[in-house]
């Protein structure tokens, strides 16, 4: 099956683990990821705490009621096409404006980036490598 939508090529969590991103309430967090970001829930766990694994075109991330502070965590997503990512989020109903696309350099890599903060407080930076 061909992937649809924006392809997440890689991801780096701000803290330690993109499979254990903290949320205060899993059930109220999930709809934003499904509706706006285009993920789908592929599994749920109740132990050691309530958590869910989400998938988008083979890329996975996890949300967990693990006691962490969502405002201090999130992920940097390397995407195949930043303009397409912005358009997809808006088409999916993102009501607030995404931050202006910015240019950043990390090491020898130039990026075009923008940020989205989920209602749960997690911050996501979408980035596309530039020549």
From TrEMBL:
Q: Which InterPro entries would you find in this protein's record?
A: Glyas_Bleomycin-R_OHBP_Dase, Glyas_Fos-R_dOase_dom, VOC_core
Q: What's the name of the protein?
A: Glyoxalase-like domain-containing protein
Q: What SUPFAM superfamilies does the annotation carry?
A: Glyoxalase/Bleomycin resistance protein/Dihydroxybiphenyl dioxygenase
Species for this entry: Spirosoma endophyticum
| Origin superkingdom | Bacteria
- VOC domain residues: 15-129
Query: What span is annotated as the signal peptide, if there is one?
Result: none
């Amino acid at each position: 099956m061909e992937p649809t939508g924006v392809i997440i090529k890689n991801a780096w969590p701000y803290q330690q683990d993109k499979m254990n991103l903290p949320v205060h309430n899993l059930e109220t967090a999930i709809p934003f990821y499904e509706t706006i970001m285009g993920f789908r829930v592929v599994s749920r766990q109740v132990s050691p705490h309530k958590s869910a694994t989400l998938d988008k075109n083979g890329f996975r991330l996890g949300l967990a009621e693990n006691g962490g502070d969502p405002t201090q965590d999130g992920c940097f997503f390397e995407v195949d096409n930043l303009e397409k990512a912005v358009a997809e989020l808006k088409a999916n109903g993102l009501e607030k404006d995404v931050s202006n696309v910015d240019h950043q350099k990390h090491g020898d890599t130039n990026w075009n980036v923008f940020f989205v903060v989920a209602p749960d407080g997690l911050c996501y930076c979408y980035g596309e490598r530039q020549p």
